Amino acid sequence: RWVKFEEKVEDGGERWSAPHVPALPLQSLFQLRTCLQKGTMLLDLDAPSFKEIIDKALSGQPEEAELQTELRERLAALLLRQPRHQPTKSPLRLLAELGLSPCRGRHGARPRLLHPECPAAASLSFQLRNRFKKKVPPGAEAAHVAVGEVEFLEKPFTAFIRLRRGVALGSLAEVALPSRFLFILLGPRAEVKAYHEVGRAMATLLTDELFQRVARQAEHREDLIAGMEAFLDELTVLPPRKWDPSARIPPPSCLLSPHRRTAMHPPDRQSHGNGDTAAAGDRAGLGHPCSREELERTGRLFGGLLRDIRRKAPWYGSDFSDALHPQCLSAVLYIYLATVTNAITFGGMLGDATANMQGVLESFLGTAFAGSIFCLFSGQPLTILSSTGPVLVFERLLFSFSQDHSLDYLEFRLWIGLWVAFFGMVLVATEASHLVRYFTRFTEEGFCALISLIFIYDSLKKMLSLADAFPINWQYRLDNVTSYSCVCNLWARGWGGPEVSVRDPSSPPALSPQPAAAPAGLSRTQCLSRGGHLQGTSCQYVPDVTLVSFLLFGGTFLSCTALKRFRSSRYFPAGVRKLVSDFAIILAILGSCAIDATLGLETPKLLVPSELKPTNPARGWIVFPFGANPWWVCLVSAVPAVLVTILIFMDQQITAVILNRREYKLQKGAGFHLDLLCVSLLMVVTSATGLPWYVSATVISLAHMESLRKESATSAPGEHPEFLGIREQRLTGLAVFILTGVSVFMAPVLKVGSLAAGFGLFSKAG
């Protein structure tokens, strides 16, 4: 059978082989051409039943090759026999049915014709139960190729039939599909192998998209021959004894489109022009969106913004209803974990760079507020806002400058944010976003690679820093376990008390401390709080937390990657594979956290704030514009604001261009001007409240879109599922940011999560 590729019956007729590219003998194609030239050909035959089709085919022979009445009757009886289809059965089902079917018997070795004792209803029932129909693309039609040898024929009988309209021919097909083409080749004995190869050649031709067009539109025999000649023009011949003919070529991962094939091998002048047009359309579809309507200037103030609003308004309702799909739940959990990890990472870095003027709590609240507003009102709600590396570098430089010149950092930052918002409004009013059409693919890919490297570098840097806090115990020797001890020496600190030997709670169970002589049960924390110091060979012992953390880090990354590719695995039904692939991130995170909890080691956990108060007690939630800095600071702030505006414009718009590429097949359009307006207005609020500045995060946004990919539910054997586009909606991003804000109140739950697993997810997003 053929859908896109060839499958053969194997193992004594019990199962179908893996799909493969058919390899045809060149002679079989020449013989097929001869059959088409000399055999019966009926085009646009109007017949409602298979019996009538056979009758017209047998009576439509040329006068010089007309069959005798007896031969016609015998051929009709042979062709009208019920077919026996090859089912795909599990081994258990084969064992259960072994010896029970009356249709097996003497026909077991050649399962092609149904035993007379089996009624036709059995084949029709098989059609209804056959799961193979799920693999057939919607709108498909069946073509039947019948070849074989018979004793009563002296010369071959050939017929090619095209029906005027698709007709259901009962149990003739393996699945219930309308039939359009039939090819029959019957001949005398001793040529069965040649007949079989000719039939394979005909079936291969009928699966070729270009030949299908010719076969559907052909008006004469010569048109069909010309279509076959065009097929032969594209043929590649392998020399004999240079390869193994029994080797099966696996289906390729990517096929050349029919438009490009037409352009490369035009059958005639007219089709050449159509092929060029189609190929140009393909190139335009895959190229840079330079001619997109979103990037055309209107010549009016805020003209581009108004056009973005008019474009997105009709889709606003569907932006919520389209999210009612299980895949969106998986995307929410995935992006939520990535966003929380990102907020913790950048929040900690901001705290280090700004003396906790901005910390993890501010990062959580700012992410939740800015992201929610952006998802509700932006032009491209699939974008995920986040703090980015370039903004972090500017914050560090700005804080250092403020400290060196005795300026209030938050007030200075407020004025810069207000100027950035003003410049952003000017860019929106003048439709400056149309400049992104000059961003080349090299610029986009280079920028995306830079951000990805930042993500991966930050993850590895954080993981390597664990070796400082939890050093690996290279000096530990199991044979010396009896000599390890840890003593809390209070006498050395002037307390006048006796030395107390205590067991370090972080030491291994095998390290038994010396019996305590005085106050019993002093822990390491209690000892240090009383002014004592720890003395002994096991005082600095910590379990190999670093090694376990790296195992969790790598395990999360690899398991996430493997489970994401599980969709194309050979194991389990397609529905199970799709479910595992959709929830790959969640399964990987839960698995790593479960292993971490089972081991019971004190590995680093997610640092989630539990109180709603500023990280630095010296600041409040509102930043006042005057009072701490000289009056001229509000004017001077325009200079660094220009640099921040350029930085945010480039960061925001390059990300927007990447997300709105034509290859993602987005249907609801982009909103470059509207997105920039939202980011500019959010700068005012985040600056006035001392929250981090936010811009589109390229890597997390791309991960968000990848988690919402739509693929065809059915795909032919050997064919990869067709990419249908992205599930465009606002609800996943909105849910992610609401959960990020609620995470402040979920600290007891989130603190169980492994930080190493989070960084593994972080590097996977990169």
From TrEMBL:
Cellular component aspect of the GO annotation: basolateral plasma membrane
Transmembrane segments: 331-351, 363-392, 412-430, 583-601, 630-650, 671-695, 734-762
InterPro entries xref list: Band3_cytoplasmic_dom, HCO3_transpt-like_TM_dom, HCO3_transpt_euk, Na/HCO3_transpt, PTrfase/Anion_transptr
Recorded GO MF terms: monoatomic anion transmembrane transporter activity; sodium:bicarbonate symporter activity; solute:inorganic anion antiporter activity
Gene Ontology biological process terms, A to Z: regulation of intracellular pH
Pfam families named among the record's database cross-references: Band_3_cyto, HCO3_cotransp
All copies of domain Band 3 cytoplasmic, residue ranges: 1-90, 125-245
Membrane-related topology note: Multi-pass membrane protein
Residue numbers spanned by region Disordered: 249-282
Keyword entries, A-Z: Cell membrane, Ion transport, Membrane, Transmembrane, Transmembrane helix, Transport
Subcellular localization(s) per the UniProt record: Basolateral cell membrane; Membrane
Claim: GTP-binding is one of the keywords in the record: no
Keyword set includes Mitochondrion: no
Domain Bicarbonate transporter-like transmembrane per the UniProt entry, residue ranges: 300-762
PANTHER family in the cross-refs: ANION EXCHANGE PROTEIN, ANION EXCHANGE PROTEIN 4
Family that this chain belongs to: Belongs to the anion exchanger (TC 2.A.31) family.
Name of the molecule in the record: Anion exchange protein
Gene expressing this chain: Slc4a4_0
